[in-house]
UniProtKB/TrEMBL annotation:
InterPro entries: NA-bd_OB-fold. The lineage of its organism: Bacteria, Pseudomonadati, Pseudomonadota, Alphaproteobacteria, Hyphomicrobiales. This is Single-stranded DNA-binding protein.
Amino acid sequence: MAHLCEMNQIGHVASVKSVGKNLIVRIASNANYKNGDGAWVERTNWNEHTIFERQGGLLKWASESLKPGDLVLVRSTPFQTEWKRDGETHYGQTFAVNELSLLTAKSDKKEKPEETPK
């Protein structure tokens, strides 16, 4: 029997940074909800997705093309990481990118012609 564990996220790019030979793409997604009083509460989910060096083509494209504010779809495989620091074991979560697609590039308002007031 096959198993599946995948993280899918649609959101806006917050940052793209190189860490060693890998690339970290930080993405923000809205996760608003109604509280017990019926009022909407704004909440943002922030996730960091890793593109590894071995994914050369995707890594190059992402580092050259993605900008903060771009709307993207990312599919990643989550896995737990473990390391020791000062004799204590620490745990983390890594989202290894499988697919990354640009849905809408952030528009630069300076490039858009201003609308004529009516």
